[in-house]
Amino acid sequence: MDRIDAGILLALLSFGANAEDSPKPTTTKPPAKPTEHGPIYTAPPQPLPEPEKSYLPLFTLNYPRVQIPFEITLWVLLASFAKIGFHVYHKITIWVPETCLLISIGLIVGAIMHSVHEQPPAVLTSSVFFLYMLPPIVLDSAYFMPTQPFFENVGTVLWFSIVGTLWNSIGVGICLYGVCQIPALGVQDINLQENLLFASIISAVDPVAVLAVFEDVNINEQLYIVAFGESLFNDAVTVVLYNLFNHVAELPVVDAADVFLGVLRFFLVGLGGMLFGLVFGFVAAFTTRFTRKVREIEPLFIFMYSYLAYLLAELLSISSIMAIVTCALTMKYYVEENVSQRSCTTIRHVIKMLGTVSETLIFFFLGVVTITTDHEWNWGYILFTILFAQIWRGLGIVVLTQIINPFRTIPFNFKDQFGLSYGGLRGAITFALAYTLPNTIIRKKLFITATIAIIIFTVFIQGISIRPIIELMNVRKTNWKLGTINVEIHTRLMEHITAGVEDLCGQWSHHSLKDKFMRFNNRFIRKILIRDNRPESSIVALYKKLELQNAMEVLDTISGDISAAPSLISMHEEKASNKSSFKPKRTFLASDLTAMHEILSKNMYKIRERTMSYTNKHTLPNDSRAREILVRRHTSIRRSLRARSFQGSESARSQKYFSLPLGQSLDTGYATESIRLNADGDPALELHNRSVRPKPRPRSKQPRFSTTRARLDPLQELHSTVNMEDEVRAEESSHRPSRQSSSSSNSRSRAPLQRHSSLGTPSVGEDDPEGDEQQLESPPPAWTPEPPDRGSGGPRNPLLRRAQWKPQDK
Amino acid sequence: MGSSQSAQEEQEYRALAERTGFSLDQIRNLHKRFKHLSHDEETLRKEDFDEISDLTPNPIRSQIIDAFFDKRNFGGNEVGRVQEIGFREFLTVMSHFRPLRQNLTEEGIERIRREKLRFLFNMHDKDSDGTITLDEYRSVVEELLSSSAAIEIETATAIADAAMLEVASVTVGEMAPGQVYEGITFEHFLEILKGVEIEAKMHVRFLNVDTTTVRCGKL
């Protein structure tokens, strides 16, 4: 919450701070002095001029003082509400991109404003846009750029974004200039420079909507990353060109030297920005090395450094977008290892939020401006603009692909090319650039109109139709969001192999270069930049992440168990009983939660838990073993934490749940759900106890039970029948024997396995098509109908347990 | 090189190109490298590989080298190991790393994918029994992680275990009822790496490649 607040505040501050061209807040009134007819209150009519002047006014309005931030807040709020609204009905955003909806809302608001003759706030000036709105947008895309695929395709990305943008600007500009010579259109006064300027504006593609679609349909990674990277870097190119042409447009005559200097400057600006970004990225990373003691302001460094890079680049008139992009790309990797988990989340959220706010505002504003300003509509010019933009985009992609394809290992086929060129939507930046054109350009209005036309054309027509077309064309797809350990291991394995083979062939190329860089990175850069500089393999990182995820899920499960599940169960069991008794306990004390988090996080990264259960895992495809340990640990925590307050009905109820007979509450969907959650953990407590029970089970009769039994067979957790209070300790001590069991019981495990598989795995099989993530995360259905053993189960453990829980019961 | 010799060589290259799908340029290039590695001998031995200094820091160096001496990777149906390999074998192993050609059919891609995965699988499966056992998997993961000193062997083992569990959890449902899960079979291997575009990732850009993406081999 406060993160968001802070973010909005920041955005507001930035707006407010910049509002120097807007009416300055009127001075605060000296309170004691009598005012004559309140001249200080300017705009709003006020009931102030009272005869009795000497009194202190009780109620005053000081609208001008707050006007700018106030209005901006309202705008941001309105836009954000619109965003909420879009997601109320999920299907809208699938078929209609959000940008379309935003523009539509803007159009509606604009219509309302137009009908009451209200002018839109004149906040979008050139400096506001370039200093406050553009950086968050660019930082957002740069920070969330998937690094690895980007560097794999960096050549293509740069090729398309730099050469492609140049191609588009020059091609469209010259063509438009040609069209301008037709007298019938009546735009002969637009000269070549202005046409080029305009063309450079509209050649910036901004495929936010398309990227969302690409992501949704799992398009192949190469296409996605090229579209992503292109949009990012061609912003930079466009802005450079924009400034260049803006400058050139003012020149009376352009000669060869100017052209040469322009080209030179183009590269200087781009490379200079990159250098700046690189330096600041490393400095930022280096700074976060020392922020361990000031975690609260850790995220601030990231924003300040990237902004500083941007501002300094702007100061030196080198490409500020390049600077901030390179800065973000450079520091991301190192910073995220240095800062705490929380700061990392904060950084990501704030960046995302600022970027979204900026973009939302621009789109929204576009809708409003479309209605409220008077346009200069020139059919010919606008239609030709759209036509040429499409043609040159398509042509450019095809030609550039032909050139780059031989250098790519995975060449773009025709469908990919189509996807790329059709995905060339124009967006927020295009509009903002056009809107902030200097007033010296005579045909500014026409340019704005044409820009709005092309944005609306591409966003609405292409943005809406691209999903069906992509799906219809069956563009090559991959599911590139796999996060399994095996995939990670093999990706790394492949990298090493290919690097090795390249070395074998004695040639340097992508993989071996990357290998060398990584080695250099591990040996030098990391040592300098990262506090805890042991290099961590991505496999281990992923593994930790999965562990964390798992633990978090368990925690969720538990809190669900505590709050929702028992109450549901009790509702099932005894509707008559006073439900209100457990209601107040649904909320956990914050301190309890933190304590649990702490204890969990301390014990989380215990791989032994997994290892221990390894041999059994063949029979049960989930990590319930690790979970149940956590659950048990948690149970004891819970009890120790809330020794007093927790003893009431709730524990009793969850205890009752343990003895719930099969099928009783499996009928209703919600109940099933909650039981699944529980089945994940709590019944396992009993299974533990059961595993030491001497009585053998008739396997054929109760397949599920013997499944679970087989699963638990090699466990050596005899301690687990001891008191719950001791469980944490027992648990810890049980790691050691189990460690051996996992390695040594390879052969031993076969017996239970065989037993299991001879049963035909009734429900596991059904579940499998859901895929492996599903299975990793959700408890397998084999657990769902768990409790039959309860009735048939040996009386010993339940008694034991009940005896244990009894004191709480009463 | 004498002219007659080069003519003969040319002939040989052509045959090899037919067989492995490399272009003549690439073969010539690789042959040069082969000669360099083997010190102008006809065959390569393991020691020759050990001399490649670039390869030394590679964590799975021994696995890579072993792959070149594994008969399973030579295209025949033999199993076992050899002590030294000729250029033909060298090239055959290398051909597993050819990039995809354009305009391949779905089946063609699938076949190449299987070939590449088979190569990886063979790398895991040291004893050639058709399954990757836990121990085999562990050793690979350990080697893979050995480059970062911070990771103790226990972690590596645990990760291998977790990965194995994952395999089991993905594939166990698909197993026929009478089977016992002993290790990763090739089918399971395919299954778990279903999402990885191995055909797009496991490739080496062999030099003089510019024409090969279009016309290398007509398998």
Would you mind describing this structure in some detail?
- The complex is a heterodimer of chains A (810) and B (219).
- With 810 residues, chain A is mainly α.
- Chain A is 69% helix and 0% strand.
- The longest helix of chain A is centred in the last third of the chain and has 36 residues.
- Chain A is globular.
- The N terminus and C terminus of chain A are likely disordered.
- With 219 residues, chain B is mainly α.
- Helix content of chain B is 54%, strand content 4%.
- Chain B is globular, with a radius of gyration of 19 Å.
- Chain B starts with a helix and ends with a helix.
- The C terminus of chain B is likely disordered.
- Classes of the chains: A mainly alpha (810), B mainly alpha (219).
- Chains A and B meet through α19, α20, α21, α23 and α29 of A and α2, α4, α7, α8 and α10 of B.
- Chain A: Its main location: membrane.
- Chain A: One of its GO terms (cellular component) is plasma membrane.
- Chain A: It is a multi-pass membrane protein.
- Chain A: One of its GO terms (molecular function) is sodium:proton antiporter activity.
